[in-house]
């Protein structure tokens, strides 16, 4: 900057804006990666909340509450719905609108295994379906007890998470770290 004059030269401004542009480009890539991971986390948390809600409703209303799954397959990825309280006359698809798809609410998230190589339940081979509940249904009785199983979720990056339920109604959350479920 010249002495006695206020302001910045064109070269100084161009350097500053170039640096800002580079930082913005790097940030956008990191933000996109974070959003995909966030979608997977939110899908599994929302599903865990749905399980708690179904169990509470079964106990409160002293009746069986069922969450039913409808899946369509495309290789290792599955799209589909889960319908809350399928037998109680309160057929609502969670997430989204009636019979809305999982990938419609959580961008890039589907039922699936991603890059996981083992079962979240046993550590053995992956199951044939990302929903391991018998009959593709989770059922809570009036005492809050349920059938056991896991639901696997994956995003486009191959990250995977699993939400499990044991017969006493305890919910388990696991995430694939590249070599094991944690």
Written overview of the protein:
- The protein is of the alpha+beta class.
- 31% of the residues lie in helices and 25% in strands.
- It is built from two helices and eight strands, in the order αβββαβββββ.
- Strands 1, 2, 3, 4, 5, 6, 7 and 8 form an eight-stranded antiparallel β-sheet that branches.
Lay out the secondary structure.
Blueprint lengths: L9 H52 L3 E10 L2 E8 L7 E3 L7 H4 L4 E3 L24 E4 L8 E6 L5 E6 L5 E5 L7
CATH topology annotation: minor pseudopilin epsh fold
| Strand percentage | 15-25%
- Specify the helix fraction band: 25-40%
The count of DSSP E runs of length 2 or more, i.e. the number of strands, is 8
Structure classification: alpha+beta
Task: Domain count, please report it.
Answer: 1
Q: Nearest-angstrom radius of gyration?
A: 23 Å
Low-pLDDT runs of 5+ residues are 91-101
Summed up, the helix count is: 2
Largest β-sheet summary = 8 strands, antiparallel
Distance between the termini: 57 Å
Query: Overall mean pLDDT score?
Result: 81
The CATH superfamily bears the name: minor pseudopilin epsh domain
Shape: elongated
CATH structural class: Alpha Beta
Provide the CATH architecture.
3-Layer(bab) Sandwich
Order of helices and strands: HEEEHEEEEE
């Amino acid at each position: 900057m010249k002495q006695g004059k206020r302001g910045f030269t064109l070269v100084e401004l161009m350097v500053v804006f170039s640096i800002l542009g580079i930082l913005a480009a790097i940030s956008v890539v990191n933000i996109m990666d974070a959003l995909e991971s966030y979608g997977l986390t939110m899908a599994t948390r929302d599903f865990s909340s749905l399980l708690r809600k179904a169990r509470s409703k079964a106990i409160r209303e002293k009746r069986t509450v069922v969450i039913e799954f409808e899946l369509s397959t495309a290789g290792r990825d599955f799209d589909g719905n889960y319908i809350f309280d399928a037998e109680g006359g309160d057929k609502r698809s969670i997430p989204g609108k009636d019979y809305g798809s999982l990938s419609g609410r959580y961008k890039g998230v589907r039922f699936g295994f991603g890059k996981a190589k083992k079962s979240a339940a046993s550590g053995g081979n992956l199951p044939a379906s990302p929903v391991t509940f018998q009959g593709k249904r989770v059922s809570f009785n009036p005492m809050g007890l349920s059938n056991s199983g896991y639901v696997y979720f994956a995003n486009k990056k191959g990250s995977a998470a699993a939400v499990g339920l044991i017969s006493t109604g305890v919910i388990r959350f696991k995430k694939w770290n590249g070599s094991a479920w944690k």
